[in-house]
Amino acid sequence: MSNVFNWQLGREMEYPYAAAYPDQQFAFVFNTNRCIGCQTCTMACKSTWTFSKGQEYMWWNNVETKPYGGYPQHWDIKTLDLLEQANPGGQRWGGAPTDLKAPYGKFNGKTIFEAARTFLGPGGPNRAVGYLPTDEEWAAPNRYEDHPVSSEAGEKGRYFKGGELLPEHKTWFFYLARICNHCTYPACLAACPRNAIYKRPEDGIVLIDQERCRGYRKCMEACPYKKTYYRGTTRTSEKCIACYPRVEGKDPAGAGQPMVTRCMASCIGQIRLQGLIQLNADGTWRAARHNPLFYLVHVAKVALPLYPQFGTEPNGYYIPPRWVPRPYLRQMFGPAVDEAIENYSVPDRELLAVLQLFGKDPRICDRYEIKEGPKVFETEVRGRKLALYNDTIIGYAKDGTKIIETTVEEPLHLRPQKHANSI
Ligand code: SF4
Ligand code: SF4
Ligand code: SF4
Fold first, then answer.
1. DSSP letters spanning 138-186
2. Which of 152, 256, 286, 391 has its Cα between 20 and 30 A from that of 210?
3. pLDDT exceeds cutoff 90 at 155
4. What does the alpha-carbon distance between residue 273 and residue 330 come to, in Å, rounded to a whole number?
5. Closest residue by CA, ligand 2 atom 1
């Protein structure tokens, strides 16, 4: 075991290999508040990469309804439970947030790698605590779709009370879109006895070498997000490849510009923003004040990693849903949830502009600038002032090409009188 620095946990942690960071890291932000569960992303991935024989149950992109849904079923609850068994009562956060090296304070519990050293139940003494899902758990990708839960005492089975108000609804669910997180410390890679899994130095994308893989499924057992899949026809494991030809700028549609992945580009709800993050020598994010992902994660602090306590340092970030009870969200996104929701619910001028970049262009935005416009609206949200300025945000690709220009206020198009009744 080596000691590596995990900034999401605010501390060093044990990992089977020495630290080695890519030049830049594939990363993304999903805004759960805007996901409509339409599964367009899911089908975009399936029709591009997993339409062949033996790939029937592979959903490299999936969208599950929380709290009950999950693919495979109960993947997160099962891993959380294994960690609790390994470290009863100890999975806690502490300390105050400091800088880019500890923005969520310090995690005092055990990661999946650390827990594996002491845990003798299923998953131990492997390189990471985990489990192999059953065939039944992989059988259906969207169980419990649109299935809400009620926190009202004595109201079991009566979900629709109506009159739900922010900040938290008593009856709730939300959609959680997921792909491989192309983790900084991938558990899949750590667990592979064939060294078939590697993390590309040029962009941090995690891939499985199909020549080396023998289908032992150690990756599937170790990945806490359950994002590798076994293919019976080839007897190898496969996973999300982050649409790397597009990220490399090889999709003809991009005319040489690096493009966002298929699942990102097809998102109907415009919930997704993808980027490439420059890293420091210790793996922390290099300050890039006007990179949209850096801004959302480290400046506005509205986007948080998914289950950071697992310890893989996932590179997928989520703007948490506003209406969901906080204890559930703190377990899923860590202790900074309250601040993230407050910042998102009453956005400042810059955040309102940056949120317009989501889903606007299929090329990867590296930098933005904002041109100030007039104030067009003012209100109060739970005692805090919210002002809307019709600013213009301009996005640039890494080579300086202008790729996006859009305003905060959507333009109003009036249907010409001659077409008024034509539908
Ligand atoms: S999400 Fe799972 S499969 Fe993807 S890199 Fe992380 S550990 Fe590996
Ligand atoms: S990034 Fe590409 S390969 Fe990965 S889930 Fe999205 S569409 Fe599929
Ligand atoms: S396409 Fe976008 S809005 Fe639709 S389910 Fe996928 S992430 Fe959600």
1. GS-TTTTTT--EE-STT-TT--------SS--SEE-EEEEE-----SS-
2. 256
3. no
4. 23
5. 242
pLDDT at 123 over 90: no
Q: Does residue 151 surpass a pLDDT of 90?
A: no
DSSP per-residue string spanning 281-340: TTSSBPP-TTSHHHIIIIIS---EESSGGGSS--SEEEE--TTS-HHHHHHHH-TTHHHH
Written as six digits, the tokens of 297 are 């994660």
pLDDT of residue 411: 82
Distance from residue 47's CA to the centre of ligand 2 (Å): 10
31 band by pLDDT with thresholds 50, 70 and 90: very high
Cβ-based neighbours of 396, under 8 Å, separated by 6 or more: 365, 366, 367, 368, 369, 402, 403
Which numbered atom of ligand 3 lies nearest the CA of 44?
Answer: 1
User: Do 28 and 274 form a contact (C-beta atoms < 8 A)?
Assistant: yes
Q: Please tell me the residue having the least CA distance from ligand 1 atom 4.
A: 180
List Cβ neighbours of 333 (8 Å cut-off, separation of 6 or more): 304, 305, 306, 307, 308, 318, 320, 340
Q: Looking at ligand 2, which residue's alpha carbon is closest to its atom 8? A: 45
Ligand that lies nearest to the alpha carbon of residue 272, given by its number in the listed order: 3
Q: Whose CA is nearest to atom 1 of ligand 3?
A: 267
User: In this structure, are residues 187 and 312 in contact, taking their beta carbons and an 8 Å threshold?
Assistant: yes
Q: Can you say whether the dihedral through the CA atoms of 93, 301, 204, 44 is positive or negative?
A: positive
Question: Contact 123/41 with Cβ under 8 angstroms?
Answer: no
**Pocket lining for ligand 2, CB < 6 angstroms:** 44-45, 48-49, 60-61, 179, 240-243, 261-263
Exposed e or buried b per residue across 162-191, where buried means at least 16 C-beta atoms within 10 angstroms of its C-beta: eeeeeebbbbbbbbbbbbbbbbbbbbbbbb
| Pocket-testing residue among 180, 243, 267, ligand 2, by greatest number of atoms within 8 A of Cβ | 243
For a substitution probing ligand 1, which of 126, 127, 182, 207 has the most ligand atoms within 8 Å of its CB?
182
pLDDT for 124 = 55
Give the position, in ligand 3's atom list, of the atom nearest the Cα of 177. Answer: 7
Class of domain 2-152+169-345: alpha beta
What is the per-residue pLDDT for 157? 55
Ligand closest in space to the Cα of 44: 2
- What is the distance between the alpha carbons of residues 327 and 255, in angstroms, rounded to a whole number? 46
Q: Is cis: bond before 88, omega within 30 of 0?
A: no
